[in-house]
Each structure stands twice: as C-alpha cells, then as structure tokens.
Amino acid sequence: MNNKIYPIGIQNFESLRRDGYFYVDKTALIYQMAKTGRYYFLSRPRRFGKSLLISTIEAYFRGKKELFEGLAIEKLEKEWLEYPILHLDLNIEKYDTVNSLDKILNKHLSDWEEKYGTRSSETSFSLRFAGVVRRACEQAGRPVVILVDEYDKPMLQAIGNEELQREYRNTLKPFYGVLKTMDGCIKFAMLTGVTKFGKVSVFSDLNNLEDLSMWNEYVALCGITDKELHETLEAEMREFAAVQGTTYEQFCNKLREYYDGYHFTHNSVGLYNPFSLLNAFKRKEFGSYWFETDTPTYLVKLLKKHHYDLERMAYEETDAQVLNSIDSESTNPIPVIYQSGYLTIKGYDERFGIYTLGFPNREVEEGFVRFLLPFYANTNRIDAPFEIQKFVREIENGDYDAFFCRLQSFFADTPYELVRDLELHYQNVLFIVFKLMGFYTKVEYHTSEGRIDLVLQTDKYIYIMEFKLDGTAEEALLQINEKQYALPFAADNRKLFKIGVNFSTQTRNIERWVVE
Q1: At 223, is the secondary structure helix, strand, or coil?
Q2: Any residues with CB less than 8 A from the CB of 263 and at least 6 apart, and which?
Q3: Strand partners, 452
Q4: CA 275/CA 291 separation, integer angstroms
Q5: DSSP letter string over 95-144?
Q6: CA–CA gap between residue 484 and residue 480 (Å, rounded)
Q7: 211: burial class by Cβ within 10 Å (0-12, 13-18, 19+)?
Q8: 376 vs 103, 301, 307, 447, CA distance in Å?
Q9: What are phi and psi of 467, to 5 degrees?
Q10: Is the dihedral of CA 257, 258, 260, 263 positive or negative?
Q11: % of the chain surpassing 70 pLDDT
Q12: Mean pLDDT over residues 206-223, rounded?
C-alpha cells in the first residue's frame, strides 16, 4: 500500500511541501531560467501545472530555502535572497463585461499600493502598476519579481465578442508594457497562459519576452515525462497494474495510450497530463479526468463557424507561426484548439518547417469527439454515449438495418446553419460516429470527393460500406464490387456484408441502403 498524497488541485507550492504532497522536481529548470534570463512566457493547456510553477518560482524568490529541502535547487542556489513579489492571478474572475477586468486589476493594485504606497498623479492602471514597481524596488533595495498567472483568461473568455476583446486588449497592452518600461526595477518576470495571441496581441510591444512554449530545453517545465514517472512512481505503477488485473507492461502501454502524448515542439519527449495522471493513480482507475473538468463549447463554435472538416483534425498540417499565435480575426480554429490541448504535435517536416498535428491521447480524442456529437447530430449529451453503445452492439449482432435506422435519426432536423454545406455536415456526422465506434471495434474510414468508403470489423462480421452523395445506393454497391474492396477478406471466415448507401441533399438524410 503506497503512502503518497497526490496533489489534486493543489496549486500552492508552500502548502504542497509543508503538507507532504507528492512533487515532481522541476527546480533545476527554474534555477536555470532565473540565472540565464529575465523575462519569460509559457503557454500550456489548462490543468498542466502552470499555477504550481508560478507558486514554486514565488517561493524561490522569497528565499524560502526550507521548502526546497531535498530538491535539485537546494544545492544549486547559494544565496537565497528575498525579493519583493508582485503576483497577479487572473484566473479567479469571470470575464463577461468591461468592468470584470477593471475590478480584478484594481483589487491587485490596491493591495500592492497599501503595502508600497501610491501617488495622486497615477490615474491609469499602467501608471499605478509602474509606480508600485518603482516604490517596491526602492523600499526593498532589490529589484521586483513579477508573476502573472493566466494572463490571457480575459481574452480567451471574450473569443467571439470582438468589442469586449478589443476593450480587454486596450487595457492589458499598456499594463503589461510596464514590464518593458520599468526594466531597471525588475529582477525576473514570468507570464503563463493557455494561449498566445498574435498580431492583435497584448504582447506586441513586449519584444523582451522569451517564449518557452516551443523551446525543447524547457519542454518538461510543466507535465510529467515517462522518465519522471518511472523514477517517482515505479512502486505505485506496479500496484496500479495489480489492481487493474494486467501485467506491468500492459498497464504501462495503457497509461501511455490514455494520458501521454503531448508534444509542444518537434523531437521532444512526450508528456503526460499531470492532472489526469495523478487522478488515475489516486483512484487506481482510468477515466476522463482532464476532459471532464471543462466544456470546450467555444471550440465547437469555432469549428462550426468556420465549417471545419473534422476528419482533418487527425492529421492537420500547419507551421510554427500559426501554432504560436491566435488572431481573433482569423478563420483558422486550429491554433486555439492546439494551444488549448486538444491537439498536439505528432510530426515535423524539417525541410519545409511544417508540423503535423493530432490528438495527444485516447482521453482527449474520445472525450472531444464524444463532446462534438450533440452539436452536429440529432441527439443530446445524456443520450449520446448510449447511442454509440447501441451502434456498436447492432454491428456486433449483424443488425445493419437497425444500425442505419439509428444513423438516419442522427440526420433528422439538421440545424439550419449547417444546411448550406450539407456534404461537409454529413461527412462530419459520419466521422464522429465511426470515430467513436473505433474505440470499441475496428474501423477504417476514408473520404474522397463526396464519397466515403468504410470497413467495420467485429469478431463475427465484416462490413464494407460505400457512401455516395446524390447518387444511388446501387451505384455505391457497384463501386464496392468493381473496386474489389472485399478482396483482402477472401480467405476470412467471418460473414461479409457489402453495403451501398446514398445520402440525399434533397431530404438531407440517408435516402436508401442496399446489402449484398
């Protein structure tokens, strides 16, 4: 029986260390940052350890050596000086009005002014901030450390509301600009967030920020590597495997499949999502822990607004410039989906500087595609998981008529905004359904010029399906035979069904299917 206490939701380093919680040592990287630079930015998905990182840096610059006993930095740091800290946490407010941001900035500034004083001439947020930085530095006799947690929360919550986003940008740009104008009074500054906004950025004047987001040397600053996992939780992994009733090797493979797979630059080590990983170890159960703590409705709105072909998510290609910035005026939903953690880097073409993206792991892939279903098909969030279960069982039982009747119900009452691109809509619904079925049975899915061919395999049956748009079901079946799609299964003993299907734009549904 292990005695580790897992820090689920613990974001305060001092509390974590004093109460004996499990901690993966990142302090050597923190020391390296502190000694080799001054201004940093890091973008990582939510619940990836950014707030704990900021809290750890704060404890270090407060000179709290006792909290770092047994950690790498204890031997590296010799002085343990205390610096004045200005810690701005934008994570605790809901940003839906102009005043939302004003209130939280005013609250932090008022607290700092109570400690360091104020002047009547400092009338704007940026002037007040600059005044606080100057006085804190003068009073302490040492430069200031500035830490900003979730710098982009206001901008992110205002996606889709251009007027509000513009107001927030106009407030934050001069506020963060203090980091440059007050350079002589600043020892160290770190800003973290989920996203990095591009040309409309609150950072556009801050050319002194070093972006660690795609820097290989710092890739493990947040998240847990496979090496760290085995070094710190080896005994617990074996215990977890025993509870699951699997071999150690099978367990390690399943753990990687579910929670590993985040790559924030090319040729980097994979990272486990720490929130999901630690929840799984605490409960000794595989679950969708990260995904269930958020409802990415704004991402679905982006995908639908820009009529995105969902199948592309599995092999999207882009470059570093796109990955690194979000432009509120852009028609490309990929940067925000990547930076939010729903896609990650899967490959890199060095010659052309092109990244291939995909889902990081099963938790994210299954969770996100399942979340999409009620937004595209005629079902709701409660019924959707049961519908997929029924689809799989109907296929496993050879009941293809029930399968297609259920599929027809998914196309009933197609939302008005999707009617203008029916071909994409029917492809997206089929992609979601068969992607989700693929977690429980073998599915091969291909699309090309208005047609879809599909192979479904169960223990007893093989289904070869050809979907046509505004053709006939007979034409679809003829294509299966002419193209000899069944040839690879000629020696297979399972029962094989060839099914031609036609989707009609007139009825906006599956019109007919024929079986051979």
Answers
A1: coil
A2: 270, 271, 344, 345, 346, 360
A3: 447, 467
A4: 10
A5: --SHHHHHHHHHHHHHHHHHHH---TT--SHHHHHHHHHHHHHHHHTS-E
A6: 6
A7: middle
A8: 38, 11, 11, 18
A9: -105, 130
A10: positive
A11: 95
A12: 90
Residue ranges in 412-472 assigned as alpha helix (H): 416-419, 422-437
Q: Read off the pLDDT band of 199 (50, 70, 90).
A: very low
Beta strands in 366-472 (DSSP E): 442-448, 451-457, 461-469
Long-range contacts of 90-94 (CB under 8 A, 24+ apart): 90/148, 90/149, 90/150, 90/151, 90/153, 90/154, 91/51, 91/149, 91/150, 91/153, 93/153, 93/154, 94/157
Task: Residue count of the chain, please give it.
Answer: 516
- Give 197's DSSP letter: B
Higher pLDDT, 417 or 244: 244
- Answer whether residue 283 shows pLDDT above 80: yes
Strand 354-358 vs strand 224-225: parallel, antiparallel, or unpaired? Answer: unpaired
Q: How far is CA 415 from the centre of its chain?
A: 27
Beta strand 317-319 with 354-358 is: antiparallel
User: Is residue 264 scored above 70 in pLDDT?
Assistant: yes
Q: Which residues lie below 8 Å from residue 330, measured CB to CB, with a gap of 6+?
A: none
